[in-house]
Amino acid sequence: MTDLLDFTFAEARKKLLAKEFSAVELNRAYLGAMEAARGLNAYVLETPEIALERAAESDARIAKGEAGPLEGLPLGVKDLYCTEGVRTTACSKILGEFTPPYESFVTAKMRADGAVMLGKLNNDEFAMGSSNETSAFGVVVNPWRRQGSDAALVAGGSSGGSSAAVAARIALGATATDTGGSIRQPAAFTGTVGVKPTYGRCSRWGIVAFASSLDQAGPIARDVRDAAILMRSMAGYDKRDSTSVDREVPDYEAAVGRSVKGLRIGVPKEYRVDGMPAEIEKLWSDGAERLKAAGAEIVEVSLPHTKYALPAYYIVAPAEASSNLARYDGVRYGARVAGRDVTDMYENTRAAGFGPEVRRRIMIGAYVLSAGYYDAYYVRAQKVRTLIKRDFETVFDAGVDAILTPATPSAAFGVGEMANASPVEMYLNDVFTVTVNMAGLPGIAVPAGLSSEGLPLALQLIGRPFDEETLFATGAVIEDSFGRFSPERWW
Ligand code: GLN
């Protein structure tokens, strides 16, 4: 028998329903693989008892012919999602052993659809980072390595646990979140597929907040079809999130395999950034050629305010973060460090509980929101945000169906390589992804080959609001054309 870990969820689903193997057998295989892969540090908490109990419930439902759309799926959950009765830390010391008495909307829906939780996945502290190196639980190791080298590489961030787990086959799918690229960039670094849905498509209720006007939940999966299957379960209206949109959830899977003939795909000239590696440039033009061969029309487009996206994001995101993180005061959640008086207690708790990157963001955020600087920074950044959004609207109004760009400016980098440079070097990683969050649009990262060093590279497609289906259709064409990629097992 083929290794159970090799099946995509679409394949496993058929076999589960045909009773070729059980959900308990499938999840046991994953739990075993997780144990063997602990060196990757993808999970911050394993929940084998919960997994086996839920898998047995899945088998019972399958036996009764009542299988849900995700029945038996071995799922990893980013530790930013609150999980009922299971520790949730956002990978920050400040949350201590916080154990929520409720389940996030998204994971509750997935559970109701039959998904099985294997455990909680590592991420950058409060999802701030691009390499998982800011996590209180330490860095996640990418299951990919450069050819002929055993140097440890990062799995991207902030959803590095999610991307590494899916790539290393220690989760068949994973939840993730994306504020400026945290689903798409880690997917790109690991040869997996990551989808950042339209803002408002998935409820943020029960997900630890980073920057509320930018945060979106989404899946990381083994291929485009699996991402579409997960996405259908994750999306939906929730009255507890005031920005959740009440709109029917389409059958995303039905879009996989749809032709791209006649679609107009825009290639934005401003994404040809200075110093872009030749390899990334080639990947991008190859992608355009292949879509053209599949019948799409490639058109050059202009998004003139692109160069302001990153600086504006690094004002808006810290501003919202400083406000969201004000709630961690040692009174309501997790850890507390005593002091002379209440102010002293707040200060001691926050100084001990937040790591350096989170402290940096709180300081930047408090500064740009302060009375003297609010207009100069925050208000201007919001205006820039509007201009970025308008750039996209102009392109879509002119009849472009989706936009093709590279997902990241490079392949996965080494542990310590960027973290030891400067924070700005790390921020530059988000150059192709933050625009999408600023404009509230959907985006997908799809693997599109290997670098000269043998590491995965990915393309990004950006869609019109609520048109994830075009991204799944076009992403599947890229996937079929370039093939699928998995790392050699060494761990
Ligand atoms: N890397 C970006 C940041 O550090 C984005 C993170 C994210 O999308 N959560 O803010």
Topology (SSEs and partners):
Layout lengths: L8 H9 L5 H14 L6 E4 L1 H16 L10 E5 L26 H8 L3 E6 L38 H8 L5 E6 L5 H7 L2 E4 L19 E6 L2 H11 L17 H4 L8 E5 L9 H16 L3 E5 L7 H16 L17 H12 L2 H13 L5 H24 L4 E5 L16 H5 L6 H6 L3 E8 L5 E8 L4 H15 L9
Helix pairs in contact: 2-3, 5-6, 7-16, 10-12, 10-13
The chain binds glutamine.
The site of glutamine has 13 residues, from loops.
Describe it for me?
The protein is α/β, with parallel strands linked by helices and 491 residues long. The chain has 3 domains: 332 residues, Alpha-Beta Complex (Amidase signature (AS) enzymes); 56 residues, no CATH class; 73 residues, no CATH class. 37% of the residues lie in helices and 13% in strands. The protein contains 16 helices and 11 strands. The chain has an 11-stranded mixed β-sheet, sandwiched between helices. α7 packs antiparallel against α16. It is globular. Bound molecules: glutamine (GLN). Glutamine (GLN) binds next to loops.
